[in-house]
Amino acid sequence: MKKHDDGFFERVYAAVRKIPPGRVTTYGAIARCVGSPQASRMVGWAMNNSHTCGEYVPAHRVVNRNGMLTGKHHFDGPEVMASLLRNEGVRVEDDRVLDFQEKFWNPVPDTDL
DNA sequence: GGTGTGACAATGG
DNA sequence: GCCATTGCCACAC
């Protein structure tokens, strides 16, 4: 047996990978989905290490609570994140997701919490 | 094993 | 209502 998971990151990656194209979510939502709603900061860091995970993680679909592309700077380029989102049909302006509320996708379909 | 960090979030003034 | 600060949790060095 395997442990429950090699780390908190694995859960984050899994949740982010579940984000359908054209949709976005927040760090807090993912953090909550993985069981640590307070570890929202860790989620962002997980994204930074996402490239070390070996698997592709659509981190560009993850934005902060305000829908702002805070992590765009951590991509291959500051324009990559917005470009990817636009490419998926997400309207982005001023480094922020328009209709964020509309595009927001909850990793937890029905939380019991 | 301790310290620092980190792409947030919530609260206070 | 906006700006500033703290809290938080798990990982990397």
Sum up the structure in keywords:
113 residues; mainly alpha; Arc Repressor Mutant, subunit A; two-stranded parallel sheet; two-stranded antiparallel sheet; 5 helices; 7% strand; globular; DNA-binding
Poorly predicted residue ranges: none
The residue fraction in helices comes out at 25-40%
Radius of gyration: 13 Å
- What's the overall geometry? globular
Sheet with most strands: strand arrangement: 1-2
Structural domains: how many: 1
Enumerate how many helices there are, as a single number: 5
Would you identify the CATH H-level superfamily?
Winged helix-like DNA-binding domain superfamily/Winged helix DNA-binding domain
Strand content: 5-15%
User: What does the oligomeric state look like here?
Assistant: single chain
- The name CATH uses for the topology is Arc Repressor Mutant, subunit A
CATH architecture: Orthogonal Bundle
* Global mean pLDDT: 85
Distance between the termini: 30 Å
Largest sheet, if any? 2 strands, parallel
